[in-house]
Design goal:
With about 150 residues, this protein is mainly α. Helix content is about 60%, strand content about 0%. The chain is built from four helices and no strands.
């Protein structure tokens, strides 16, 4: 990756980060304005639901900022644009579409196939940040937690 390409991605990442931070400030301002008590129970419930959705979105954005910061650090280190799994260059089209990418398309596809296989088997290895419970309980049946036997 040449100097101009690194500068392009640095600018793109910094602009993305600034947009997220601006949106976060706007959300905080909006939530502060909305903190007034609603006398109507339905209005209050609706407001609380909207607030929860906004906070979840902000949490996802916070995690995205850490990925953007990591990408900016990789640009400084000279490792940006290289697959963390194979060490091969990540395609410029992929980086343009997903500038925080750490895996090449091929490595990402392998990762997703492995994840799908484990998910289909009902368990994901310890290295994965996700856990899938293989137990499926239908809502019309009651089970005890200790034995997982139907309650009588």
């Amino acid at each position: 990756m040449n100097v101009n390409q690194r500068a392009y991605f640095r600018t793109k990442l910094v602009a993305w980060r600034n947009d997220i931070l601006r949106e976060a400030r706007e959300t905080l301002d909006h939530l502060a304005e909305e903190s007034a008590n609603h006398p109507d129970l339905a209005d209050r419930a609706s407001s609380e639901t909207d607030r929860a959705i906004e906070l979840r979105a902000r949490d996802r954005q916070r995690k995205l900022i850490s990925k953007i910061d990591a990408a900016l650090q990789r640009i400084e280190d000279g490792t940006y644009g290289y697959c963390e799994e194979t060490g091969e260059p990540i395609g410029l089209k992929r980086l343009d579409a997903r500038p925080i990418a750490t895996l090449s398309i091929e490595a990402q596809e392998r990762h997703e196939r492995r994840e799908k296989v484990y998910r289909d088997k009902g368990a994901i290895p310890d290295s994965s940040p996700h856990y899938v419970c293989p137990l499926r309980i239908r809502p019309d049946h009651a089970f005890s937690v200790q034995s997982l036997q139907p309650r009588t």
